[in-house]
Design brief:
The complex is a heterodimer of chains A (211) and B (271).
Chain A lengths: L1 H20 L1 H4 L3 H15 E2 L13 H8 L7 H13 L13 H9 L41 H5 L3 H12 L21 H12 L8
Helix pairs in contact in A: 6-9, 8-9
Chain B lengths: L1 H18 L6 H15 L5 H13 L30 E3 L4 E3 L1 H11 L5 H4 L12 H11 L13 H14 L10 H5 L5 E2 L2 E2 L6 H8 L4 E3 L4 E3 L1 H11 L4 E2 L4 H13 L9 E3 L1
Parallel strand pairs in B: 5-8
Antiparallel strand pairs in B: 1-2, 3-4, 5-6
Helix pairs in contact in B: 1-2, 3-6, 7-11
Classes of the chains: A mainly alpha (211), B mainly alpha (271).
Amino acid sequence: MPRNSSLIALLAAALAGPAVLTGCATAPGDAEVTAKAAEVLKASFREQGQARLDRLVQDDTQKTCSESAGKAPPKDAAERIEKANLASIKWPADGNYLGDWKNGEKIAQEGRGMQYSDDPKGPAGANCYACHQLTPQELSYGTIGPSLYQFGKSRGYTDDVRRYAYGKLYNAEAYSACTNMPRFGHKGILTEQQIKDVVALLMDPQSPVNK
Amino acid sequence: MRCIRQRLLRGAALALALAAPVVLGQGSTVDEIAKYRAALQDGNPAELWEARGEDLWKQKRGPKSVSLERCDLGLGAGVVKGAYAQLPKYFPDADRVMDLETRIVWCMVTLQGYAEADATKGPFGSPDRKSDMEAYVAYVTSQARGTRMNVALDHPKEREAYRLGEKMFYFRGGTHDFACATCHGEDGKRIRLQDLPNLTKTDGAQKAYTTWPAYRVSQGELRSFQWRLNDCFRQQRFPELVFTSEASIALTMFLARNANGAAFDAPAIKR
């Protein structure tokens, strides 16, 4: 009996040895699994309403941020992402960043837009309250993003802060690589005017956000 | 049946009584919602789906006019009790990993003689069109209540499905750059007032996975895990996840395995 079990152990070691040495033969590498996952995803969805299959084609930002799997991306990758996304921002031709805060509040409340169940004619909302606290009157707010209550009041009503708010809404990846926040201008979710209206919600001294 | 109806009425009365204070401050709103959910547990209409599912399971159906009673859900032909707690798993007869719905489709095709297209048609019900699949799912999952989650990664294809599911969980795409991880990767977060489970942690995955399927009060329907994934991707602004697709099985494998060790506790009831 002891002889048998040691023989089995020997056999097991002999079989396991080469498998450990050539790890790839038994377990596919990480890059291989990543590529296969993208391929399987493409075969597992069908076009529905306005959501076409090209939504599964990743740009460099999406691909790099997926690979960092919830952790901060490597420094060089973060710099590359922020630089490319900053360059993509289309600043308002008239140099004015401030729209109507009342419209901004409606856009911040609106959750519809871009889902296959939504009217493709839009307009889409920004659904800011899903993730952020804004006006003190709205108690139903999410916590994925930071509170934006008193955004303008605490930072100062300067042109630099208005420009930053516009840029952040247009393309958040320009300021914080792999952020959870969507790129509302870059991805064509909001129009220039809608972004200005949300900037006003954050930056107009009359907005309830700053009361 | 009368017992169920009485419990439902009691649940509805409590829900009405508790709906009023929801306008109070933040903390108390969350507390009131928790009480409302607790009150709903008292009478779960999911029992109606479970009963209908059991009835359909035992009926002779399909071109071959046989029941699903000989369906092998992984514990041997005819064993329903506890089977859901170790799904998804690798099935040698199909040579692939299957979740519950995929396996039911397999049994409908191989035992009852349905065409696959017919077996996968209309998997999610609406008030005017009930789904037999959701009834089957309610019945089978109810037979695993109290069983500890025990999803294996023994077969290479089970390990592959898990690793693919993990990659998919972090896959960002669509107009909003969302991944599953965007909403389900951190502790203590919520969307509006809805608490979000952190599915990357054992306790979060356990709490979430063991409470699906669920009767959704807001929809008046029992919803399966396939539906849960399908509707998450809709809100992620992705195209439509195909019912029983390979990605849906891989993601289910990732989430079910992460819930190992917890007692299964569904069909549940949710808002």
